[in-house]
Structure formats: structure tokens, C-alpha cells
Amino acid sequence: MTFEPLKGIRILDLTSVVVGPVCTARLAQYGAEIIKLESPDGDLMRGLGGLSPTGQHSGAYLHLNRGKRNLCCDLKKPGSKDLVKKLVASADVVIANMRPQALVRLRLDAQSIRADHPDKIYCLITGYGTDGPYAGHPTYDSVVQAATGMTGLTLARDGAPSYVPMLICDHVVGEIAAGSILAAVIQRKATGSGSSIEVPMFETMSAFVLQEHLAQQSFDPPVGPPGDLRLLSPHNKPVKTADGWIAFTVNTDQQVRAFLKAVGRAELIDDQRFATVGARAQNVREWFEIRGAPLTDKTTVEWLDILQEADIAVKPCHTLETLPHDPHLQAVGLLQADEHPTEGKTVAIRSTISFDDAYPALPSFAQPRGWDTRAVLEEIGYSAHEISGLLAEGTAIASSTRAEDQ
Q1: CA separation (Å) from 125 to 96, 100, 288?
Q2: CATH at 274
């Protein structure tokens, strides 16, 4: 299926690693033309995201950079200024996640670009808002997890802070940035005006934490301590079975009664401490101790059958090894075979969003550095002679693995 509501929108992608590429990958799925401007050193994620057959494209890089055209340019070279100026002029949207100070030096900040092109949409994804004292501080996902109190949640629950072992802040903020750009595109179509957007990771993820865990301190005066005590219970974890682990949640009174009957604790159904949502909130520690008790008298499969029969939300706890083989994911074809020009056979992840009962076509492979350098330079007005000069002086770099670039 072809689903391209952003067809005709060109985006200059000045991002790297994860948060920016997540944003532009989503926009590529919606049909935008993404021009990824990459330095000669390459996006750090090419190597940081794990091993690969050639050492040039980690698995994470392949997944985060599908559907993008790659132009390699050395911004330290004098000739790059004119090149980037023409790229900016050709784009509808510019997205960056460099430090604000570096963007100002390169005249690639929102103020510089929109002074010349007020109709441009400019999105800066930054670690900390530029109007606060942390502005310009370096950061990564794990630092944001700590600064926003996410690690403090595991400290409160488990007695020690820990990171979510995936780049959760990068993914969430990248998707939010993509949504903000979509809103700006709609506004520009209505008014003709561009926008300057800033999406700070620290404030964005802090808001998520506080929406849930400001809790009783959302009132003036507070009616209790901060924190959702259900989520902070040390028993709020997957439950051990005879041969593995399962995860389930029971929230409604009907679900609780069905659960207590299923696990052989029917005597607690009439216990007033657990009879209603309000009562369980008042007795959350005792309730979660019951709810989180091991279920080691039966296997995972047996418990899945029992709890599903009781209409309780339950699933097995997958591992990285078992998740790709989940029968549901296999049935819906989330993972698909693909071919990469340098890495050979690869596994691709299709869009999880369907439109009109169909999934958009798989975007093209993540390109080697400089794969589309020649073509993009030609499109923005450089002659063949000028392109040869830019390549010779090292301002632009073309892929050494593409036949027409050799």
C-alpha cells in the first residue's frame, strides 16, 4: 500500500544517533523526502548500535534510517557553506539535534534560517530547553532517565536506581517531535507561515513522569506523598510460574474477583480491604503483596490458559530471543526479509500503523554514507563540473560502493 500524506515535503535531516532519526524515520513513513546530511565521520549509531557484516551499518542504524537519502558533506570545508545554503533553500523542514551553540556557529539555528526563509519549519530537538540554565549541556538517553526521576522510580521500588534497558526517552521524544512537525505542516498549509519548534528531552520526559507520579501532590495543599503507590510497589513486577514468568494486571472489581478465584484465594473476595477500587487504593501495599505472590504450582502455559479464561489481561514475559517468534507478531508479519546493498540479507521492521486496513510499503534501505550525494547536489542546482570539484576537494563525499559513484 502507498500512504504518502507528506509526499512533496522535503526535510533536511541534521540529526544523528537516535532521537532525531526516530523523528525523521516516522516522517519518512508518511511519505516525506528525507535528506540525511551526514559527516565524513558518520553517524555514531553506525557503530554504536552493534556489530554488522561490514562494520558500516549496525542493526539499529538500519532500522532507524530507512527511507532516507544520504548526502555526505564535510561542514569544516569552505565550500560547504554554499552547499548547505542551497540544501536549506530546497527544504520545507529543517530538523536538528546538535547542541544549540554549534548550530549558531554554523548559522544552522532557527533564527538564522528563518531570517532568510520565514516560511521554513525548523525543529530543534535538544537535551534541555534553551530558556533554562541547563541549555547547551550535553546529554544522552540514560542521563535524561536519571535527571527526570525515572531512575528514582526504581530506587523507590527496588532500593536501587536503574535504567530502562532501551533508549526509551529518545524514542518517545522523537515521536513527539514528529507529531509537532506534522502540526506545523498543517498550519503552514493554512497560513503560509513557517514555525520554530523546540522539543527538549528533559522537560518532555519530566512531564511524563509527573503526570503519573505527582499524584497526591497535584493538589494544594497536597493530600499525600508523591508517587502512584501501585506502580511503586516492590511487588509490581512479573510473577514467577513453575517454569517461567507471566505479566498480568487486574484493575476493575470484576477482574479482581475473577483473579482471586482463579488463583485459589476466593476467601479474599469479600475482604473489604480489597472489595473496591477505592479500598484497594487505601490498602495498596497489602493488595500488591497478594497480587504479586509467586504462582509456582503451575506452568506458564497453564496460568495463561486459566487467566485468559477468566478474561484477565495476561501474557508471557518474552526475552529478546523469544519475542521475534511470538505467534501474533509472526501472523501480522512485523518482521520482514530485506536485502541491503552492502550488508546482504537483513531483517526489516514494517510500520506498525495501518491505514485503510493496510500497512504502508516498507521504506527503502538505510543508505551507505554519500549514497545519494551526486543526485541531491544535481537536484539543488550544481552542474556536473561543480559536483566533481566538490568531491575532489572533499567538501562532498560520494559512496564508494555505488557503481555510478566509482
Answers
A1: 6, 10, 39
A2: 3.30.1540.10
Domain co-membership, 178 together with 309: no
Find the distance separating the first CA and the last CA of the chain, reported in whole Å.
Answer: 35
Interacting residues of 42 by C-beta distance below 8 A, sequence separation 6+: 56, 369
CA gap 254, 312 in Å, rounded: 10
Residues 60 and 138 occupy one common structural domain: yes
Same domain, 252 and 365: no
Domain carrying residue 286: 239-316
Half-sphere exposure of 30 (CA within 13 A, CB side): 16
Condensed to tens digits (0 to 9), the pLDDT of residues 116-139 reads: 999 999 999 999 999 999 999 999
Per-residue pLDDT of 38-84, as tens digits, reads 999 999 999 998 999 999 999 999 999 999 999 999 999 999 999 99
Largest Cα separation within the chain, whole Å, is: 85
CB atoms within 10 A of CB 297: 11
∠ CA 67-69-73, rounded to 5°: 145
pLDDT tens column, 357-383: 999 999 999 999 999 999 999 999 999
**Among all residues, which ones are annotated catalytic?**
170
Does 53 lie in the same domain as 114? Answer: yes
Q: Judge whether 376 lies within some domain.
A: yes
- Of 254, 289, 316, the residue at which a domain comes to its end is 316
Contacts made by residues 324-328, CB under 8 angstroms, sequence distance 24+: none
